[in-house]
Specification:
By secondary structure, the chain is α+β, with helices and mostly antiparallel strands. The chain has twelve helices and ten strands.
Length: 389
């Protein structure tokens, strides 16, 4: 369990020295459902402080490293979950994703990560990032994720935004393949200018392979603009709210980078925040029209392979200073609340994992899992059993 998900009798410190070490008295919905189905809970996994960034270092646990190459990050914010999954330290891992925090580490760490449709998995207490945040599985296989999602998605009335209807068994139909599906491949979403050439080549090859599996694959763009300004407005303003809720002494204990983004967040007005919040509907409607023509959208998951451990952005400055610049494929689908998954689709020349993103229509998690399983069946995921230097 990622250590921003509460579990009875265990502390929940959220990667922060400000977090209490006192054991809590309740389970989050995801934890409760797993316990009810007999899961053995092994421990909590690391994250950056309050999940503020797409990598995985914090004042509480220091640097979490990528098992494929120890000088690189596993990604974040569910970085500990992805690193543990990569090393087979337990088969099932709970992640959360408000702007890519399941899919970034799944891609960087060479595992499968599924961001369910918003509300499919009940969450409580509510994330500070609210309508952006999704809870879902990180696993080594698509089948494990389908099994896990079937349990995580069971109702829990504590989440007012959850569907709270009985979920299907997501394993049913998982092997049905993609024959006849209309699939769009979008290498740059229409506006992304910088993508690592090895990442782009591997993802295009993976996307084209769906035609060999019987799908109709075409290159097409979704037709929405770059959402970076809107996600930053929402993300940074919430970060400021989290920091402002701490005492002065606690603020001094925070990651300096988190304090810095909180300071940026204080510059936004309420009107700017509400404007960004409301524009989510424009992105969602663009994708609604897009899925009238296409059953699925495929993109690279990340613009770059895993960056250096302990940093917020690549050391050479090639993608700027902000995470949105090296993770431009993730956050649009938090704004639209669609299901999206990261599927391992190869390695770079220096052995770093590459992920392909599969995006499905709103509330259709089953088709995303089905397509991911079809790809996995044809192209089994590479695995490791011990960290590599």
């Amino acid at each position: 369990m990622k250590d921003n998900v509460i579990a009875k009798d265990w502390p929940c410190r959220r990667g922060s020295l400000t977090g209490s070490a006192e054991p809590l008295k309740e389970d989050a919905p995801a934890v409760a459902r797993l316990r009810e189905h007999g899961a053995v809970l092994l421990g909590k996994t690391t994250l950056p402080e309050f999940g503020w960034i797409g990598v995985c270092h914090s004042p509480l646990t220091s640097i979490t490293r990528n098992p494929w190459k120890l000088d690189r990050t596993p990604g974040g914010s569910s970085g500990g979950a992805a690193a543990a999954a990569a090393l087979n330290l337990g088969p099932l891992h709970i992640g959360t994703d408000a702007a890519g925090s399941i899919r970034i580490p799944a891609s960087f760490s060479g595992v499968f990560g599924h961001k369910p449709s918003f509300g499919r998995v009940p969450a409580w207490p509510a994330s500070p990032f609210g309508m952006l945040s999704h809870t879902g599985p990180i696993t080594r296989t698509v089948t494990d994720a389908a099994l896990m999602l079937s349990v995580l998605a069971e109702p829990d009335g504590r989440d007012m935004n959850a569907w709270n209807t009985a979920p299907p068994d997501f394993r049913v139909g998982l092997e049905d393949g993609v024959k006849g599906l209309r699939i769009a491949w979008s290498p740059r979403l229409g506006y992304i200018t910088k993508v690592d050439p090895e990442v782009l080549a591997a993802c295009e090859k993976a996307a084209r392979s769906f035609a060999d599996l019987g799908a109709i694959v075409e290159e097409a763009e979704p037709g929405f603009p770059d959402a970076a300004d809107d996600i930053l407005t929402l993300w940074l303003a919430v970060s400021a709210t989290v920091v402002d809720g701490l005492s002065p002494a606690e603020r001094e204990m925070l990651d300096p980078g988190f304090r810095r983004v909180a300071e940026l967040g204080r510059r936004y007005t309420l009107a700017e925040y509400i404007g960004a919040f409301n524009r989510r509907a424009e992105y969602a409607n663009a994708m609604l029209r897009f899925h009238e023509r296409y059953d699925l959208l495929l993109t690279p998951q990340m613009a770059t392979p895993a960056i250096e451990a302990g940093l917020e952005a690549p050391a050479d400055g090639s993608y700027g200073d902000l995470w949105v610049e090296w993770s431009p494929y993730t956050y649009p689908f938090n704004l639209t609340q669609q299901p999206a998954a990261s599927v391992p689709c190869g390695l770079t020349s220096n052995g770093l994992p590459i992920g392909l993103q599969i995006v499905g229509p709103a509330r259709n998690d089953a088709i995303v899992l089905r397509a991911a399983r079809a790809y996995e069946s044809a192209h089994p995921f590479a695995t490791i059993s011990a960290p590599r230097a």
